[in-house]
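Standup, Tuesday
Yesterday: got the pipeline producing structure tokens again.
Today: sanity-check two examples.
Blockers: none.

Example 1:
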Amino acid sequence: MSETAGELKTTCLYQAHRALGARLVPFGGWNMPVQYSGILNEHRAVRTAAGCFDVSHMGRVEFNGPDCVPYLQRIFTCDVARLQPGQGRYTLICVEDGGILDDTILYCRRPDSFLLVCNASNSPTVLSWLARWKSPDLRGLPEPARRLNGALLWQLDQEWSTVTTTEANVIGGIAASAGVYRGRVRVIRSVDCLAKLLPGEVLVCPATSSAWMMVFQRAGALVADHGSTLSHTAIVAREHGLPAVVATGTATSRLKDGEEVIVDGNLGTVRRCAEA
């Protein structure tokens, strides 16, 4: 993909840059063009027509296989499962304390194929970080151990896999407690407002904790912005037999008090009846 100019790498367009009279400078270990005819001329060209930049020096990493999404969900700050083929997302790779390792763009080519574009000078660091979180090859383990690992991976996938939808009147999330319920919404954002919930209403909240236990006896169904199949909301909803959808991300901001919805705890969706 590149030639060598001293200790600097060059892109596949290096000869074209030279032919066009570019002034080449070191940039992140690459010999890159910084200027052609002059700052003013190039400024006018961009303002009146267009400008092109050689980005073929950027780091590129391909991910392929059925385990792409669960793996990438552990790496990036965006919800990788929501990316559709042909879509890309500006997203971050963070370290354990929340600091940013690199800002990147992640493209979904197919449901089982992704392309990462990272900063050129940061490519070795990114590759090292990706390798750190790669699951080990378990094919050499005894059959019982492989089955146990498969069960754990399945549970993690179930816990963090959200339903994606393009329907404007449907909010997707994680199916947390089975059942289907139709009722009116009551948005409650804090424990101080629990008394507002009327019997049979659909409780829509950021998340629940032990302080919210009283509402499980009055609610007809539960919808939460956050959570997983092992969260407090999901576990207690199952104990009370209430349909529940969690990890919607936006339910408390999109749903309004009094509007009618259908909560499907089997599929992990919340459908707004007024817009159906």
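Example 2:
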Amino acid sequence: MNCPNCKFKLTAVPYVHVTKIAGYTVTDKSGLSLACPKCVGKSINSEVLAQYERRAVCHLLTAPPTIDGAVLRYARKAIGLTRAELAAFLGVSERQIDACETDSMVTRQMRLALLGLVMCVEGGGDLQDLGRAKGKELVIGDPGKDPSTAA
């Protein structure tokens, strides 16, 4: 891949991403970025940025003993849900979501449920497909491929 500015060949270099969420700082040193040695510019696209944000949220939902409503709000926005949509996924009222986000009352159950939603999105899942299994059968993988012929 070439630099859009000077057409020089881009190379992968270490990338450190810092996400600040509600008084917490999450530093992710696991990434690589494409950089132009000639222009000395680094870039990441919006999807990669969204992945960093979702990973930061996953760590915050599991690491500190307590979190406040601002972390919950950040997590909800990181997976692209409105308060009403999150309430529907969690089976609670929109008013409960509002109370958690504004009054800093985030229960353990809410944290775990939200972590599951974030991990679903981070794993490439589609939240719209949640809860749509037919009966007791759940098919995972490509329905057009026979698993016995997989390499």
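Quick observation on example 2: Residues 44-124 form a domain with the 434 Repressor (Amino-terminal Domain) fold (CATH 1.10.260.40). The mean pLDDT is 80.
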